[in-house]
Write a structure and sequence with these properties.
single chain, alpha+beta, Immunoglobulin-like, Cytochrome Bc1 Complex, Chain D, domain 2, five-stranded mixed sheet, about 20% helix, flat, binds dinuclear copper ion
Length: about 240
């Protein structure tokens, strides 16, 4: 064992031999992008993640021939581009590829066809084929986060009226960095804001009134799916 270990250390330090790593952990496949290869050929590196495609929108000129490389960041997703033959699985740790030519102008929706969690049915992207497009993605990655189903629900339910996301105070405590925070309650107790606490705080606000705030949050009916989506969203607010 000692000799084996010594050989390993020698190989790693002196001979510069490293063990193979997961292909999706190394460039160029760990982030979404569009590469113009010239002569109407493009490489699209598409990364699927909960619950968006990166890049969310790819804009190319008619006649573009695309080599699509698909990987996944978290769980298994699917990718189907309408009106084409492209139908791939996005599997963490692998890169799947397809070649497709877009001759007709128009919008081609991209959908995830593998159930991947609460936001699965929101998970979509698109290819826009139009004259004069350069292959550069228009929507910034921030736009993906802004359009997450959790954020949408947070606004739909009116949570944002009282709970800020940027640390500023409002009628209720800010949700920035809420996950894992130690919360002092009105009744003198303290709780750690884990999933169970966040769920309870959403379902039964009167049981978790935070010290220094009025007990004005209404108890509303939420489905289990909605509560999960909200909790998942809150946990992303670092
Ligand atoms: Cu990703 Cu369903």
């Amino acid at each position: 064992m000692a000799a084996f270990l010594a050989a390993l250390v020698y190989a790693a330090t002196r001979m510069n031999i490293t063990v193979p790593t997961c292909v999706t952990d190394v460039a160029p496949f760990k982030e979404g992008r569009v590469v113009d290869k010239g002569n109407g050929r493009y490489e699209v590196h598409m990364v699927a993640k909960m619950w968006a495609f990166d890049p969310p929108e790819v804009r190319l000129p008619p006649g573009a021939e695309v080599d699509l490389y698909l990987s996944a960041l978290d769980v298994t997703h699917g990718l189907y581009i309408e009106r084409t033959n492209v139908n791939l699985m996005a599997v963490p740790g692998t890169v799947n590829a397809a070649r497709v030519r877009f001759d007709q102008e128009g919008e081609y929706s991209v959908i995830c066809h593998e159930y991947c969690g609460a936001g699965h049915h929101f998970m979509a992207g698109k290819f826009v084929i139009a004259r004069g497009e350069t292959g550069v993605q228009r929507a910034a990655p921030e736009a993906v986060a802004a359009a997450s189903p959790g954020r949408e629900l947070f606004e739909q339910k009116g949570c944002n009226a009282c709970h800020s996301l940027d640390g500023s105070s409002g009628l209720g405590p800010t949700m920035k960095g809420v996950s894992g925070r130690t919360v002092e309650l009105q009744d003198g107790g303290t709780r750690v804001a884990d999933d169970a606490y966040l769920e309870e705080a959403i379902r039964k606000p009167s049981a978790t009134v935070v010290k220094g705030f009025d007990p004005v949050m209404p108890a509303e009916e939420h489905t289990t799916e909605e509560v999960r989506t909200l909790v998942t969203f809150l946990k992303t607010l670092r």
